[in-house]
Design goal:
Helix content: 25-40%
Strand order of the largest sheet: 1-9-8-5-4-2-3
Order of helices and strands: HHEHEHEHEHEEEEEHHHHEEEHHHEH
Bound molecules: pyridoxal-5'-phosphate
Mean pLDDT: 96
Strand content: 5-15%
CATH architecture of the largest domain: 3-Layer(aba) Sandwich
Shape: globular
Number of strands: 13
Distance between the termini: 27 Å
Low-confidence stretches: none
Structural class: alpha/beta
Length: 383
């Protein structure tokens, strides 16, 4: 790869992160311990959640949330096809069935108006995704959930900084919100995630399930407190986060707000730079919400000189990497073949899936790089 190629998703790792990891390595406490406890506390402070359980990924956080609610074979979970595989895969892992409801064409979030019609006697949960960090219509979703006695589990992989009507992502009203700290996310721990909840009993269950179903974690078993026995109370999972990872997260979290401001600037520069092109730029942010600005996705309109793949190839030749968020899940062989889903059932997700691509969107980008990206997009668009 040439040195001036702008890759799609690259984290910011500076001397502070390197120092934090080195320090953790020197302590020889590498697994789940004091750094992870501190990271949980800081995320609780930042998101407003009362209880936080650090885990190895958002996929684990989603699975754990579903499992802690006892969701399993014979149950249905309503979610969106306009998401990453992990959202629906986590439902399949419990033995339950993911039931897709189409997304809105503008917000790219699940259409709350479609949810009610998808509820059956088997429905146990609604699993909305705050797409790209845009808050889903939580109040409408919570109303449907209340009417049918369903739990709401929020896929907040993109939404650490999201706010909805003054509520932070740990206060939006779902039973849990699940964060991701994957490499390309707004903050990273290399791999990692977090379950946020305000339900004490659920938090206790999720924590026990996150570590083999043991009644005491390693920190309380092996640190310098009095020796403790443990018992296996349920066959849990191995989903804990390491202190090495948490030490990166602690540094990154301190920079989250500053990085969001930089992404706000890049967003505005992109919006202005793409005006008049045969591209649909992201819809304006809904009033009384804060967008976490995780992805900048565009739709190639039918009057463009090239289609979506042509755009991506053209940009690649000009040294710009792109991504796709998303090829909707109902089109993937597993979901299409197992559940018989068709494009006609999800006209909006299908429309978007054929036309969308995402541009590099990191606070690491310099103004000169952003301008280079804009110029390249304008060139491919024939402007
Ligand atoms: C919407 C969404 N949900 C879930 C996940 C899974 O996150 P993780 O990689 O931390 O398991 C991702 C990751 O890309 C995602 O984008």
């Amino acid at each position: 790869m040439s040195s001036d190629f702008i890759v799609f998703g690259s984290p910011i790792i500076g001397p502070e992160e390197i120092e934090a990891v080195t320090e953790t390595l020197r302590t020889c406490w590498l697994g789940t311990g004091p750094r992870t406890k501190e990271f949980e506390a800081k995320i609780a402070e930042y998101t407003g959640a009362q209880y936080t359980i650090a885990v190895s990924s958002c996929t684990a956080a989603l699975h754990l949330s579903l499992a802690a609610h006892g969701i399993g074979p014979g149950d249905e979970v309503i979610t969106t096809p306009m998401t990453f595989a992990a959202t629906a895969n986590s439902v399949v892992h419990t033995g339950a069935t993911p039931v897709f409801v189409d997304c809105e064409r503008d917000s790219l979030n699940i259409d709350p108006k479609g949810i009610e019609a998808a509820v059956t006697p088997k429905t146990k949960a609604i699993l909305p995704v705050h797409f790209a960090g845009r808050a889903v219509a939580m109040d409408e979703i919570l109303a449907v959930a209340k009417a049918h006695d369903l739990v709401v589990i929020e896929d907040a992989a993109h939404a650490l900084e999201t706010r909805y009507k003054g509520r932070r992502i740990g206060e939006t009203g779902g039973s849990t919100s699940c964060l991701s700290f994957y490499v390309t996310k707004n903050i990273t721990t290399a791999e990692g995630g977090m379950v946020l909840t305000n339900d004490e009993a659920l938090a206790r269950k999720a924590r026990v399930l996150s570590l083999h179903g043991l009644s005491a974690d390693a920190w309380s078993r092996y640190s310098d407190g009095a020796p403790r026995h443990y018992e296996v109370v349920v066959p849990g999972y191995k989903y804990n986060l390491t202190d090495i990872a948490s030490s990166i997260g602690l540094v990154q979290l301190r920079k989250a707000e500053e990085w969001l401001l930089r992404r706000d600037e890049i967003w505005a520069r992109y919006d202005a730079g793409f005006a008049g092109l045969p591209l649909m730029t992201p819809a304006p942010v809904e009033p009384d919400t804060r967008h976490a600005r995780h992805l900048y996705t565009v739709l190639v309109t039918d009057d463009a000189p090239v289609d979506r793949d042509g755009f991506r190839n053209g940009l690649h030749e000009l040294g710009i990497g792109t991504g796709i968020h998303y090829a909707p899940l109902h089109r993937h062989p597993y979901y299409r073949d197992r559940f018989g889903y068709t494009d006609e059932q999800f006209p909006n997700a299908s429309f978007i899936g054929s036309r969308t691509f995402s541009l590099p969107f990191s606070p690491k980008l310099t103004d000169a790089e952003v301008d280079r990206i804009i110029a390249a997009v304008r060139k491919v668009a024939g402007a």
